[in-house]
Design a protein that fits this description.
Blueprint: E1 5-12, E2 30-38, H1 49-53, E3 57-63, H2 67-76, E4 82-87, E5 90-91, H3 94-106, E6 112-119, E7 133-134, E8 149-152, H4 175-185, E9 190-200, H5 214-242, H6 250-266
Parallel strand pairs: 1-2, 1-4, 2-3, 6-9
Antiparallel strand pairs: 4-8, 5-9, 6-8, 7-9
Helix pairs in contact: 5-6
């Protein structure tokens, strides 16, 4: 049996030591692509020997920074027909891998599937709808994290936008929302299934950091711009700021979101001037990454 599914693990620096705990016992239909982002050569000495000994692990050291760049590096080295996006602290089971393979076999017309994640004690990571839905008909407030996403590698999908995500210079999150929105615009069929894909160590969601992190607020404005254009984003950040608790500095929060809009407008991905039309900056297909 040839491998069908790759787990695209992104890790950085000394967190490479966490990766062996993620691996399941070898199975013929599963591979791991470990994109090991490092910022200094000293971290190369921290690679666990067990990663080099596994035939089902492809280790790809990558001198860079930024989580979105790391995701794209993992995409670049994926050779199977299906892939899961993963962080170094997720945990899978054979049953959950089987579930993903089964859904893709049963639904050949779906390009991207989104699932649920739980904390290690079984607590849902966030509030998930109890019913399946198409991305185009998603309930208000629904959003997905990278490690909840699986996809077909032959689909016409965008690369991750490197202006967004941990390690980016100005915006610290929102890369998954932009990725899914762009994929949908390009014609990908995206469906959510109310089933648990993985466990992950408890972590604070970005929504909870909105009140304490300027970069998160900038990211919200930037995501609005990518999805709705300048006018749509401006109206949404204004409404959002007005609905904030009176104890917040609404003016500052609004200005932070506006700064995110302006940043995207002034920093298009490729040559050319961005305007009020979202995605006027020609996102790259991940299959064509250099």
């Amino acid at each position: 049996m040839s491998p069908r599914l790759s787990v695209l693990v992104c890790t950085i620096n000394d967190r490479i030591k966490n990766v062996p705990d993620l691996l399941l016992p070898p199975r013929a239909d599963l591979l791991y692509v470990v994109s090991f982002q490092y910022t200094a050569s000293v971290f190369l000495d921290m690679i666990p020997p067990s990663l080099k000994e596994r035939d089902d692990v492809k280790l790809v050291p990558f001198l860079s920074s930024g989580l979105s760049a790391n995701r794209n590096n993992a995409f670049r080295h994926c050779t199977t027909e299906l892939a899961l996006i993963a962080d170094d602290d997720v945990r899978y089971s054979n049953d959950r891998i089987d579930m993903v393979l089964r859904h893709f076999a049963q639904h050949p017309d779906i390009d991207i599937m989104c699932f649920q994640a739980q904390e290690m004690d079984g607590t849902p990571l966030k509030a998930y709808p109890s019913f399946s839905f198409e991305y185009s008909n998603r309930p208000k407030g629904s959003y997905f994290t990278s490690f909840e996403i699986a996809f077909r590698t032959d689909a016409h999908l965008p690369a991750f936008d490197t202006r967004f995500g941990l390690g980016a210079s100005y915006l610290s999150c929102g890369e998954e929302e932009v990725f899914l929105h762009q994929a949908h615009r390009w014609g990908a069929r995206i469906v959510y299934f109310p089933e648990v894909l993985c466990l992950i160590s408890g972590r604070e969601t970005t929504g909870k950091r909105f009140f304490s992190d300027t970069k998160v607020r900038r990211s919200k404005g930037a995501v609005f711009y990518m999805m709705f254009g300048f006018l749509g984003a401006f109206l949404r950040i204004t409404k959002h700021a007005l609905l904030l608790p009176s104890s917040c500095d609404r003016w500052k929060f609004w200005k932070d979101m506006l700064d995110g809009i302006i940043y995207i407008f002034r920093n298009p991905l490729n040559e050319g001037m961005a305007d009020e039309i979202p995605l006027d900056f020609q996102t790259m297909d991940f299959r064509n990454l250099p």
